[in-house]
What we know:
The chain is α/β, with parallel strands linked by helices.
Amino acid sequence: MRAFYKLPRLYVTGEIVQGDDIVLPKDQGHFLSRVLRRTVGDQVRLFNGNDGEYLASITHISKRETVLSAGEQIRTLEPPPDIWLLFAPIKHKRNVFIVEKATELGAALIQPVITARTTSRINIDKMQAHVIEAAEQTERLDLPQIRDAQKLEHILAGWDKSRTLVFADEGGDAKPAATALAKIKAPAAILIGPEGGFTADERAMLRAKPYCVPISLGPRILRADTAAAATLALWQAVSGDW
Ligand code: SAM
């Protein structure tokens, strides 16, 4: 059982230095005192995405502010495997699911992609809040970077060819995922299409790229959110840190 596992985890911005005071933003202070019902003297765990995890004690709680005193470092940051998730935004609730699962499943970067059949937009600020919440819950010490939505063509135009792009191709003639993914080590990326799927032109464009590997996720057509979580999980199991 991990030590300190029962203590709440809070993401804070800025450096964490043992002995320093950290004043929490109002909403976080409220969450700690009102929702988690913690009080002065109680301990929490802090992480900022760069410096590992620290213990901290609550030294002051009031309506106006909550102050913590940073304690010892209890975990050092080991960066997760360099796996990215690119996905075409779908309905808001399902985008939240994709971003939350990508965070839990260790994605290092999340890139919304605009394809020909993408019909939804995505609110990056809202997604950032879900990333932080998922990282606190999943015991991550880093945060996945979440980028603004970009057109598929633009992303490919600037693609680093040393990063393999796994393309979930529902067209039906791609390699089975497990065999394909076992050979694809980090740095890698997974691309999931929109509800309407990729167009024939997009599939041809992707398949023409030397760094692109089409994979099949089996005989059934998965929802985009299911496909995103399933492919990330499979990659972590055969080539990642599971
Ligand atoms: N509208 C498409 C159709 O009916 O054929 C389905 C698109 S699916 C809802 C969304 C995305 O999930 C696809 O573009 C693909 O990236 C991925 N996906 C879903 N099922 C898949 C499968 N069996 N094999 C490979 N990729 C799949």
